[in-house]
């Protein structure tokens, strides 16, 4: 038996040796392999970057958790950078996903070429010496392009400042425009010509800090992850907008959990024109309400919810129009002025401007069809849900008050913001201070942790529950649906004519179910 073990060990050793001679490493599921090269350069003479090593180490840790084999390198000379890149790209033929991450100094030359600096670059160098001690980004991308990996990603946390104009990472002269090969996505800390925040006093640079936050969330498609990172950075430093260039031939997820459906990054081609785009909300528990808000938000109480889907956006003019035209519901005479499709402000209507989209009004545009529908009552919204259910064979309804707040808070990925996805009301939605007193196209502001839009602005949203002041915290803790009767229905969220204080996710409203108002709209829930 001992001889058999020795024979098997020798057989395995020989196979490994042969594989190395062929320049490859055997793996059972080769198509799923991911390889990353992570470089952090910090020890620059005269211009050190305190966060760069932290950025590289934390990125390496996170990528390993996402199934990457990681090559981590720190404080490299030019030759060491070149050797690491050559080793990395030569191994890519055995991997389906290739990722390069760099934190450090960079610059754009007078010939508009971008370079990543080794730690050999000194402040007294002229351009020729600086280029001779740096790695060309174009060469890096060309080397990656030759590899057969179908998914190629670059993340670069470097402002690429020209060292001959004060080359610190926070200098105003930033990256030049970049062109990437087909099948590659590059994501940079700042747009061409912009500065990138070093995030003084924090462990990571601002870009990497926010990128890491998004990488930790499951079920984010690459485009959504990039958009979320960009919005988070811009929210904190409005002079820095991360820059993405290039595209992949297919969708890419860093992680997709088995217990949750993978969300679709785009509307399915066979989705009916009136069917809303939905986002999965994994069930869980949360603290509902606020002890620092209005009296009807108190006390904070624990609520447990099953999983459900909720509309990514508020129901739009175009979606609601499909219902009206198909059923004849809410004719102009019933509505009074056809204002369910209005996108103008109430102040403009008072000056006599016609904002209707019926035969007697002005011609509608595709962008106006993407505004949230307003002037719809709770009864109108319920009628729409019933029609949508009959058309699709699925069960649509209004969200319960608990479902609405849980989704607005970000579900189990909540980061504890008082607005939907932000500590800043104007970043989260269109409210009184930034709306110009009118609605705006859905999805124009920052998404929350679940990828939901406009839950703290644009229009207030009807919920299914009867409103109650006293019953609020005493209802069932599991999937509460509110009291069995009442005089008013619940509205949640801010609107184009409401203050930041009243746009908090915990804020509640009480309205008659027959009321039609220019501030009110709705979104739908899909029952699994």
Q: How do the strands and helices of this protein lay out in sequence?
A:
Blueprint: H1 2-21, E1 34-40, H2 52-65, E2 69-74, H3 78-91, E3 97-103, E4 106-108, E5 114-117, H4 127-132, E6 134-136, H5 137-145, E7 151-157, E8 184-188, H6 206-215, H7 222-236, E9 243-246, E10 278-281, E11 284-288, E12 301-305, E13 308-311, H8 317-327, H9 332-335, H10 346-350, H11 378-392, E14 396-397, H12 401-408, H13 425-428, E15 460-466, E16 489-492, E17 508-511, E18 520-521, E19 525-526
Parallel strand pairs: 1-2, 1-3, 3-7, 7-8, 15-18
Antiparallel strand pairs: 4-5, 5-6, 8-9, 10-13, 11-12, 13-19, 14-19, 15-16, 16-17
Helix pairs in contact: 2-6, 6-7
Pick out its properties:
single chain, 528 residues, alpha/beta, Rossmann fold, paralog of FGE (formylglycine-generating enzyme), 2 domains, six-stranded mixed β-sheet, four-stranded antiparallel β-sheet, 13 helices, 19 strands, elongated, disordered N terminus
